[in-house]
Amino acid sequence: MNLPWSGPTRLLIGPEGLADWLSYAPVGHASVLVDPALAGSRITALVEDGLRRAGHQVQMLAPEGPGNAAEVLDLARRTARSEVIVSVGGGTCTDRAKLVAAVQDNPEAADALRNNSRSGLVAIHPRIRRKRPLLAVPTTLGPGSELSRVACMPHEQGKRLISAEALIPDAALLDASATETLPAHLLQEGVLEALFRTVTPYVGDHRELPVEDAFCEASAAQLASLGHRLSELRTAGLPAGAELRLDTARLSGLTHAPWMRLGRAPFTTAGWIVANELSAALGVRKMTAVAALLPHLWQKVLDGDERYGSERRLRRIWDRISHGTPQPLSAHPAHGVTGLIEGWGVERHLDADPARLRGIALRTTRAWGAGLPMLGGLLTDDVEELLHLALDRTDPRDSPALDTPQAALCAA
C-alpha cells in the first residue's frame, strides 16, 4: 500500500507498497547502502528481493567508515552508475545515503560538504535537486530521517547539520520486519526522541498558531500513549507487536512534516543543539544526553527565561501529554518529564570531568552561536551552565518548584 497524501515523501507499507513504487522507478542498477549489522536481516532480504523482481542489478554496500564528507564523496563515486539509491538502516545510515544521492551529479552540493566554515548548519541552495530516486528503509524509531530534509554529518569540529530539498527521500518503506530485532530500550528512546522533536519548537516559539499547535498537541499526546504502551510491555518482558511498532514509526516520521512547523520561528531548538554536541563530545547516546538535559531545559522555561521558550505553552502541551498516558505524572512539567523518562527506562545519568564542559560550551557556541542565529541568544556561559546541570545527579524533583496560582493561570 502507498500513501500518496503523506507529503513530499511517499510512504510505502510492506512489500506490496515497495513493488508498486518500483514499478514507476527507472530500471537498471540499484545501490543499497545497508547498516553492516543488518546485512543478513529479513528487511534487507525483502528490499533486495523487491529490487531484483523489478529488474534491477543490485549492488549491496555496507559502509563502516565515519560517514564524513570524504566517505560520502567516495560512496557517490562508487554508486555513480545507479539509477536508484536505497538505504536500509537507522538514522545514521539514512543520512549517509541522503548525502550520497544529493552530491551525485551536483558539484555545488559536494563543495558544500567540503566547506570548512565554523557554522554547524550548512544550507544547500534550493535549486540543487537530486537527479535519481532515493528510497529510505528505516530500521529504528525516533530519528525520522526518512521524511526529513536534513542530515547529520560528522566533521572534525563536531557534527554538522546539512539542510537541503535534495535530501528529502522520494519514498520511505515501513515494514514490521524492519524493527523486529530492535531492543526494547531503543524503541523507548525512539518515542522520547520524537516527543522531544515535537515539543521543542512548540515551546520555543511564543506565537499562537491554533492549527499547527493542535497538530503538535495531538501528536505529543499520542506519542506519550505509545510510549506508555511500550513501557508496559517492556516491564512485563513482552515484545512490542508489529502494529504498535508501525504506528510508532509512522508518527515518529510525521513529526518532521512541514505543517508541524509552518509559520514558526526557524531557530527554536537550542536544547537539541546542546544535547547533540554533548553526546558527540562524551561519546554517549544522543537520547541519554537529551534525557539528562530535558528537565533542566524545561525548568529554565518555567523560571521565566524566555530564550528557552514560553512557560504558558509548555504548561499547555504538558497538560496534554500527562493526560495522554495512564502513567501517573506530576502536573509540574520539569518534574513530570523526569518521571516519564524514568518510567520509560531511558538512561539519563552522565559521567564526565566537569573541567571538559567549558571546552564543549565554547565549541557549541562557535558552531551555532557567537553571531550565528541557531542558539537563539544563548551565550557560552549559558551553555556551560546547562552542561553542568546535565551532569548533576540531583533529582530535579527535589527542587522547591511549586505550582503557584499564576502557574495555574498560565496553563489555562
Structure write-up:
This protein is α/β, with parallel strands linked by helices and 412 residues long. The protein is 48% helix and 11% strand. The protein contains 15 helices and 10 strands. The strands form 2 sheets. It has a 7-stranded mixed beta sheet, with helices on both faces. The longest helix is centred in the middle third of the chain and has 26 residues, at 210-235. It is globular, with a radius of gyration of 21 Å.
If helices are DSSP runs of H or I spanning 4 or more residues, what is the number of helices? 15
Mean pLDDT across residues: 91
Structural class comes to alpha/beta
User: How do the strands line up in the largest sheet?
Assistant: 1-2-10-7-5-3-4
Distance between the terminal alpha carbons, to the nearest Å?
A: 42 Å
Short synopsis of the structure:
The chain is of the alpha/beta class and 412 residues long.
What would the keywords be for this entry?
7-stranded mixed beta sheet; 15 helices; 11% strand; 412 residues; disordered N terminus; alpha/beta; single chain; 3-stranded mixed beta sheet
How is the secondary structure organized here?
Blueprint: E1 2-3, E2 10-13, H1 14-22, E3 29-34, H2 42-53, E4 57-61, H3 69-78, E5 84-89, H4 91-103, H5 107-114, E6 121-123, E7 134-138, E8 150-155, E9 158-163, E10 171-174, H6 184-204, H7 210-235, H8 242-254, H9 270-282, H10 286-302, H11 311-323, H12 333-343, H13 357-368, H14 380-391, H15 405-411
Parallel strand pairs: 2-10, 3-4, 3-5, 5-7, 6-9, 7-10
Antiparallel strand pairs: 1-2, 8-9
Helix pairs in contact: 1-2, 3-4, 6-7, 6-8, 6-10, 7-8, 7-11, 9-10, 9-13, 10-12, 10-14, 11-15, 13-14
